From TrEMBL:
It comes from Peribacillus glennii. Its main location: membrane. The chain crosses the membrane at residues 41-62, 74-98, 147-174, 204-230, 250-274, 286-306, 312-335, 347-371, 383-401. This is MFS transporter. It is found in: Cell membrane. It is a multi-pass membrane protein. PANTHER family: BLR1003 PROTEIN (PTHR11662:SF450), SOLUTE CARRIER FAMILY 17 (PTHR11662). Residues 5-406 form the Major facilitator superfamily (MFS) profile domain. PROSITE patterns: MFS. It comes from the Bacteria.
């Protein structure tokens, strides 16, 4: 059953990120139909994240109480309604409203999915399990890009969105065949519910400000700047700067997605193998992720110098795969800090990272417009900014995140954080 659950979480992430990325793939026809400027399009991209961080935390916290399976089903049904609602969009205001609502109800999915996978798999397999969930995001955002581009060109962008609503309904039906958790975790879940009543807000905030939680969150945040850029701006970058056709762009996006999945799944498996061998969080999780992110930042920055289409695609394949290592492994680190609040801890990580989604698209649009007719310069500046940020926070992550020393998950009834 654990593999059935993992497959469904993988498919759910495909739908989740297809919902996110289709707006970027449909950017040209949407901007043309509604006569949108780069700044207005940046507004459309960022609006998805206006409520995303808040609802991500609230929804995940609620999932800790009512169960992940039930909460995930509720989210999927809501996505379906919103995607069918796209058929009625007639202008910028409704487009922004749709994106705000979609982001609000998609915010909780990833943290709940990571926590759900964490419950179904043992520690030595959790990085791999989460990498499979994350790979669903890449498949949804990039690998299915040619299919989405074809649907947009054949049926129009509105009906392409509606097809994703149908996929949401199918997923909701399939999740009903699974159980909430493995039977051997029933007793542990009962204990966890008791611990939920003892959570002290002051101690919880102290936990969040600890170096392990803080710098894991910052590393995740820096990578998510890149995540959002890939979703909203990379299709435009490949067409306008690298001079690819729409078809070439679709295949390039798919190729980047496929290779990057192989890279970060391999990194996750290496991390799991090291953890199984030495049980060291710092060696197997922190150093592996930090080193990967540093290498990815360097490759990302290289496309500013070498803009040959073949190199750009190759560098983006590796940069995406290497920097994305924090996405599956970061949740395992923060859940380790407080296991009984797995969904809440992961939601804070992902929602804090998704704050990047609020400012990233609009900032990129502003930078591109500042460059005037030199669109390539604007995109290069945005890429350099992302590379420097990822490099900085990955170094801080490698230095200060030390999950082995203290498991700050144990919070006493009096509110004190106890070493374990």
């Amino acid at each position: 059953m654990r593999w059935v659950v993992l497959l469904l979480l993988f498919l759910g992430q495909i739908i989740n990120f297809a919902d996110k990325s289709i707006v970027g793939l449909a950017a040209v026809p949407i901007m043309k139909e509604f006569d949108l400027s780069n700044v207005q399009w940046g507004l459309v991209g960022s609006s998805y994240y206006w409520l995303y961080p808040v609802t991500g935390i609230v929804g995940a916290a609620w999932a800790d109480r009512i169960g992940a399976k039930k909460m995930l089903g509720i989210l999927m049904l809501t996505w379906a309604v919103l995607q069918f609602g796209v058929l009625g969009i007639t202008g910028l205001a409704l487009l922004v409203a749709y994106r705000v609502m979609l982001g609000a109800f998609e915010g909780p999915f990833s943290p709940i999915a990571y926590s759900h996978a964490n419950n179904w798999f043992p520690p030595k397999q959790r990085a791999f399990a989460n990498s499979v969930v994350v790979s669903g995001a890449t498949v949804g955002a990039m690998v299915v890009a040619p299919l989405l581009v074809a649907a947009i060109s054949i049926f129009g962008w509105r009906w392409a969105f509606a097809f994703l609503g149908i996929a949401s309904l199918i997923w909701f039906t399939l999740i009903q065949i699974t159980s909430e958790r493995p039977r051997d975790l029933e007793e542990k879940q009962s204990v966890a519910k008791k611990k939920l009543e003892k959570l002290n807000l002051k101690s919880f905030l102290i936990l969040l400000s600890s170096p392990s939680a803080l710098f894991t969150t910052l590393a995740y945040f820096s990578t998510y700047i890149f995540v959002v850029w890939i979703s909203v701006w990379m299709p435009v970058y490949l067409v306008k700067v690298i001079k690819m056709s729409s078809v070439e762009m679709g295949y390039a996006v798919a190729g980047i997605g496929i290779v990057s999945v192989v890279v970060y799944v391999a990194i996750s498996m290496i991390s799991d193998s090291l953890f199984k061998r030495n049980q060291s969080w710092r060696i197997s999780r922190v150093y592996v992720v930090g080193g990967s992110m540093i290498a990815g930042a360097l490759l990302m920055a290289s496309v500013i110098v070498f803009q040959n289409p073949v190199w750009v695609v190759a560098a983006m394949c590796l940069a995406k795969g290497l920097t994305y290592a924090i996405l599956p492994i970061g949740p395992t680190i923060v859940i380790h800090l407080m296991p009984e609040r797995g969904s809440l801890m992961t939601s804070i990580l992902t929602s804090s990272g998704n704050i990047a989604g609020i400012v990233g698209p609009m900032l990129t649009g502003f930078v591109i417009d500042l460059a005037g007719d030199n669109t390539a310069l604007g995109f290069n500046q945005s890429i350099l900014f992302m590379g420097v940020m990822i490099m900085l926070f990955s170094i801080l992550f490698s230095i200060y995140v030390k999950p082995d020393r203290t498991n700050t998950a144990a919070i006493s009834p009096s509110g004190k954080i106890m070493d374990v």
